[in-house]
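ARCHIVE ENTRY
Sequence with per-residue tokens
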Amino acid sequence: MRSHRGIFWYSLGLTLLLLLPMVLTVAFFADQYQKQQLLRQASAADSTLRIEPGAQGVYRLLLIVQQEEPAFVLARADGPKQAVTLCALPGSLLVNAPAGTTTLSECALSAGAGRAAQLLCGTVATGETAAPELHYIAATPATWAGKNAAVRFDTAALLTPAARERLGYGDDPVAACTAAQAGELIADLQGALAGAGESADARAAVWAAFARQDPALLAAFPTGLRSQSARLLTDLLAADLSALEDTLTYLSTRPALAVDYVTAETAKAKGGVCLTDEGMAAVRDLLS
């Protein structure tokens, strides 16, 4: 009887020893299968949330028209906000320099576009924040007008009825012009505007109209820079230009893209004009 009972327990133990590895193996592969399923689900979710190239890019540029009296336009391309904002700055704007103050125009003509961008950043920076990163692009009027494009600009947005009448837009305030004619239109508008800030706004308004009415110009902008590289000055490296191209291409395809310009309010000061508190806030917002 005892021998039969011993054989039973021996057989049971042997059976369990044989079955246990099989059970553990099945449990292991079941656990691996569940983990793989979770990874597939996470990968599928990640692919649906993949961020488009350029969607997170934010670029701040000081665009300079190199001429006898240089012109300056701050530009902010904001991927997250899907917006392009311009702000023209008068050449007579005073900026802080090591030896006192100078104007943007004097700085650009004597020390170069890069120094002008540097002093502008130093002027608007506060003690609580570091000077923002501001790239610069300087080119002649002919280079800026290189792209074949056209715009319909409503002069009523800037001019009084009397001023429009003097310029020949009394009956129809809309001016149709090409990129090559934009400089002449801007000069006409500036001649009819009083004040350094208002006069500078004309350039930002016209440039914004081009980008708003033809967003493809944004995507083509980096290509134009590459083709005109021998005729312009910039601190944008190849990697910077490629990243800027991603952001501008992304923005050019957004149905909700907002293109506008803001005014940097100025006040007369000895030797030029200076930013008011409101103007300083507007520039800081663009450079933030």
Notes: Residues 177 and 185 are 8 Å apart (CA to CA). The longest strand covers residues 58-65.
